[in-house]
Amino acid sequence: MDMLPIMPPTLRRPPSRPTKMRRRESDEPQTTTKLTKKGVEMKCNKCNKLGHNKKSYKGNSTKTFQ
Ligand SMILES: [Zn+2]
């Protein structure tokens, strides 16, 4: 009888942190594609200036709060 040498299990996890990914259910809503305004330049349609929008538009004065 030919005895095979005892080998360590071939499937070994690398010594790294376990993945934080949890199993998702198939009917779980996908939240990976988030719609953000990041990178989109705001343009105020009141004074037509970039950097802010009409929500943050505070009159056409150039007053600065100090
Ligand atoms: Zn403006």
Mean pLDDT: 77
Number of helices: 0
Please give the share of residues in helix: under 10%
**What characteristic shape results from the CA principal axes?**
rod-shaped
Explain this structure.
Residues 1-38 are annotated as: Disordered. Residues 1-12 have a biased composition (Pro residues). 0% of the residues lie in helices and 0% in strands. By secondary structure, the protein is largely without helices or strands. The termini are far apart. The protein has no helix or strand. Zinc ion binds at residues 44, 46-47, 49, 52, 57. Residues 44, 46-47, 49, 52, 57 line the site of zinc ion.
Nutshell version of this structure?
The protein is mostly loops.
Q: Which features characterize this protein?
A:
66 residues, single chain, binds zinc ion, little secondary structure
Topology:
Layout: no helix or strand
